Structure prediction request, 162 residues.
Amino acid sequence: MVSFVVLPVPAMRAMIDGDLVKASAAAGCPLSPWLMSESWLWAIRAEQVEQDPAAGEWVARAAVEGGQVVGHAGFHGPPDAEGRVEVGYTTDPAFRRRGLGRAMLGELIRRASGDSRVRIVRASISPDNAASLATVAPFGFERVGEQWDEEDGLETLYELRV
Prediction:
């Protein structure tokens, strides 16, 4: 079973600085070198939470199974004016093809469903990302359109009403 550890700003800043010991202490659990290698994301999320402390409960979590970090997951931010949150999750390559992405997504959907402000969970996926498409399929997401992302290119938008 996958559980989440919220990553506070000091943990994210320590990962950006390359200090795994300090990051783990700030997070309250042993983090991994792979998680620390995602420093580009932690820079974005740390700034986001510093600007909006309420975003901290939404945006950055280490995914843990059996005492090991197996990935990270969260939302792109708190619910927007329409009650929409967008999921983001990644499995450490050493732990892929074990159903952990699906487990993380299920936990994110449960988290979103438990908040009365959330009405829609969104996932944006590259049309050629077969693994991510397979991950969202069992949850009943519906294709609602496309968008162009400056970093990721064409993405198909999927939404799930909660």
About this structure: The longest helix spans residues 100-113. The chain is about 35% helix and 30% strand. Residues 3-161 form a domain with the Aminopeptidase fold (CATH 3.40.630.30).
